[in-house]
Amino acid sequence: MENQFSNKQRAEVLTQALPYIKRHNGKVICVKYGGNAMVNDELKHQVMEDIVLLWLIGVKIVLIHGGGPEINEIMDKFGKKPVFVDGLRVTDKETVDIVQMVLAGKVNKTLVNLLESYGGKAMGISGIDGRMIEAEVKDERLGYVGKIKKIHIKPVQDLLEKGYIPVISTVGCDRQGNTYNINGDTAAAHIAGALGAERLIMMTDIAGILRDKDDPSTLIPDVTIEEAKKLHEEGIISGGMIPKVDCCIEAIKEGVKNVIIMDGRIPHSILMELLTDEGAGTMVMEERK
After folding, report:
1. Pick the residue with more confidence: 4 or 285?
2. What's the number of CA atoms in the CB half-sphere (13 Å) around residue 186?
3. Which residues contact 137 (CB under 8 A, 6 or more apart)?
4. How far apart are CA 107 and CA 75, in angstroms?
5. Of 58, 119, 167, 257, which has the maximum CB count within 10 A?
6. What is the chain's mean pLDDT, rounded?
């Protein structure tokens, strides 16, 4: 009886998910993936499994990833010590070569391989391919840290049209052949905007925007751009959350319908966000309907 009951429950869950499946079918959803969800192997497998599930039900998923911890690990092996100016990492020629090797190579291909192992059809590209992320020097003092000049989105659109899950590493380039390290959140905002994505999901190491940063129960489920600005003025949005929310606002201004900041450490948080009423994390939107 217990087994029959669990099968019945499964069937009910699938039925309840149907309106959400219909809503997202054929829509472009971008996922910015990094942080602890990327470092923890079990979570990494769950995230890839969730992405393949969404792809199988007809969601056009674009996965945009970072890889800070892996970059630090390889830099350490090369005996490279990180140098910071005003809290930003200085990226010399040797460091940007390491960034390209780790992000466009090891991390990107590992994620593609995992997606394929779960039955997905994935293709890994970097911002250099098709000069997708055209960049310029952000600040001379930071070396090869790039500011996005233009997104050439056609390579991603072509992959989506052919039924692939594009997996994008956030390195950029200029017309002189230089390579740049690009902030992953900023790149995700611009790529999602260029695609006119229905939603950008930012997977982070915190639950979302909290009224009290030490109390997860004070999660703010949704905010408009104006409300976010007020929360910033009040000091509720502070520290590392400031650039995250700025990227959310940037994405909406670029054409994304709404952005979710969510805790990537929670198993199946992407499915909770897209296929349930409750959702997960904080939704940032232009204005309330």
Report:
1. 285
2. 17
3. 144, 145, 146, 147, 180
4. 15
5. 167
6. 89
- Tell me the C-alpha distance between 271 and 267, whole Å: 9
pLDDT digits (tens, 9 = 90+) for 45-65: 999 999 999 999 999 999 999
The 10s digit of each residue's pLDDT in 119-154 is: 999 999 999 999 999 999 999 999 999 999 999 999
Orientation angle between helical segments 184-195 and 241-254, nearest 10 degrees: 20
Contact assessment for residue 66 and residue 127, using Cβ atoms and an 8 Å cutoff: no
Type of residue at 12: E
Question: Which DSSP string corresponds to 43-65?
Answer: HHHHHHHHHHHHHHTT-EEEEEE
Contact 185, 33 (CB under 8 A): no
Distance, CA of 142 to CA of 151 (rounded, Å): 22
pTM of the complete model beyond 0.70:
yes
Helix (H) or strand (E) holding 269: helix 269-275
Q: Mapping DSSP to helix (H, G, I), strand (E, B) and coil, where does residue 198 land?
A: coil
Helix (H, G, I), strand (E, B) or coil at 88: strand
Report the relative pairing of strands 146-151 and 133-137 from DSSP bridges: antiparallel
Amino acid occupying residue 227: E
**Rounded distance between C-alpha atoms, residue 231 and residue 211, angstroms:** 9
The CA distance from 94 to 78, in Å, is 10
- On the 0-12 / 13-18 / 19+ scale of CB atoms within 10 A, 161 is exposed
- pLDDT tens readout for residues 156-206: 999 999 999 999 999 999 999 999 999 999 999 999 999 999 999 999 888
